[in-house]
Design brief:
Length: 435
């Protein structure tokens, strides 16, 4: 493969986006890109092909790829190529250039086009070779995206089950309403089974013969739900269930930040260090968080007595940005804006707590007009958590355990794919290795 030297100006010149105030946008199918990604949608594009969007103002050097026509606003540049495969090569090439460090305006961060155009680059001489590299690297992103979409669907399924059981109390209502209308206990049980499964009574009866094991499990689950409600501090609750204080159910701790002025405690490298998760990291993850943008040295952990958080703990952001939830995939640490819940103090599981916190109304936690300043560690520890009967907890875990297991597996695969891609990227784009 022959390589040549050129410049950004010669190979992929940057074009200016065009202003499109939100008041002038008419909702449509075309994404509107600003410097930090999609900011809305419009009925028509100003770039009628696929393209690359680069942050010009604000999020300087942020790079986005659109495989459909789009509108680039005036805080962004854009690049087009006739071949989508070559555009993908260009996208990955730009990722290696550190454009985010080319800020030319200290007051309002900005990327100067002339400076960007002057950057020297090395590319394969033949378009087909550029396309081959672009397609190869994009397979990593395609698999990552597929896993991400799968995880989002699986999480929606788990949350829907949780809401049905523990927010709407639908199976309890089904049983109670059936009994109130004069149904026999057996008929009430069938009504509960219908609520749990979404099946008709005829389908449930058929299930007894076509899938007796599934029928028996559904029946046992239905039997475990109570048939009436009682009053509690938090309103009506199924009989035998209760709301309890969070710190009675979980080992709760708060993260810590070493002195920021002393850089020796921090690192951007994982080797020999330990993850140090921020709220921003949580925002960039799905259910499971598998990496962080910064790490703490072992010396920092020891010197400042920073608590290590075990795998499968639940993280909750409670300062500034309230209510981000993640589950750890390895031993980790966090800053002081994040609380962690370690299971084992009660029968409640990681899966249950994650779903509960995702549906929690954090607006009701604070006692002042500003929720961001009202919530503190004591508030978190005194949160009320629903505590169903242990039998119901068991059936819920049986229902969602494999869902969470698959989500975790996909998350860890994405971490591996991302690292593999990022390690290959500079070697492929420098000609060190060839496809």
């Amino acid at each position: 493969m022959e390589w040549i030297e050129t410049t950004i100006r010669e190979y992929c010149p940057l074009s200016y986006g065009k202003g499109l105030p939100q008041t002038k946008r008419i909702y449509g199918i075309y994404p509107v890109y600003g410097s930090n990604g999609i900011v809305g949608y419009h009925k028509e594009p100003n770039v009628t092909s696929h393209g690359i969007i680069i942050g010009r103002k604000g999020s300087v050097g942020a790079i986005h790829l659109s495989e459909i026509p789009f509108w680039a606003i005036d805080t962004a540049f854009y690049i087009t190529k006739e071949s989508l495969s070559e555009l993908k090569f260009t996208y990955f090439l730009l990722k290696t250039l550190d454009l985010n460090n080319m800020n030319s305006d200290s007051a309002v961060p900005g990327l100067n086009r002339d400076n960007a155009h002057s950057i020297k680059i090395k590319i394969p001489k033949l378009q087909k070779d550029r396309e081959k590299i672009g397609e190869y690297l994009s397979t990593f992103d395609q698999k990552i995206e597929l896993n991400t979409q799968t995880n989002q669907t699986l999480e929606q399924i788990a949350q829907a089950i949780f809401k049905h059981w523990f927010i709407d109390f639908a199976p309890v209502h089904a049983k109670a309403n059936a009994l109130a209308s004069g149904a026999s206990p057996e008929q009430a049980e069938l009504a509960t089974m219908a609520s749990l499964s979404g099946k008709t009574l005829a389908e449930i009866t058929a299930l007894q013969h076509t899938a007796p094991e599934a029928y028996h499990q559904l029946q046992q689950t239905a039997q475990a739900f109570p048939s009436e409600f009682v009053e509690s501090e938090m309103g009506l609750v199924p009989k035998g269930w209760e709301y309890r204080i969070a710190e009675d159910l979980f080992d709760i701790g708060i993260g810590k930040t070493p002195p920021r002025k002393e850089s020796k405690w921090f690192s951007t490298y994982e080797k020999n260090n330990i993850e140090w998760i921020s709220i921003k990291d949580m925002g960039n993850s799905g259910i499971y968080i598998s990496n962080s943008s910064e790490y703490l040295t072992p010396e920092a952990i020891s010197r400042f007595n920073i608590r290590k958080i075990p795998e499968d703990s639940v993280l909750l952001s409670f300062k500034l940005t309230i209510g981000r939830i993640s589950i750890t995939t390895k031993e980790t640490t966090t800053n002081e804006a994040i609380a962690h819940f370690k299971t084992g103090k009660s029968s409640l599981t990681t899966e249950f707590l994650y779903c509960y916190l995702k549906d929690f109304d954090f607006d009701n936690l604070g006692n002042t007009s500003s929720i961001a300043t009202a919530v503190n560690s004591r508030t978190i520890k005194n949160m009320y958590i629903l505590y169903p009967s242990e039998e119901i907890q068991m059936w819920f875990v049986k229902k969602v355990k494999n869902i969470f297991k698959k989500i975790k597996s996909n998350t860890l695969e994405n971490e591996y794919l991302t690292k593999s891609r990022d390690e290959l990227l500079p070697r492929l784009l420098s000609g060190e290795i060839e496809l």
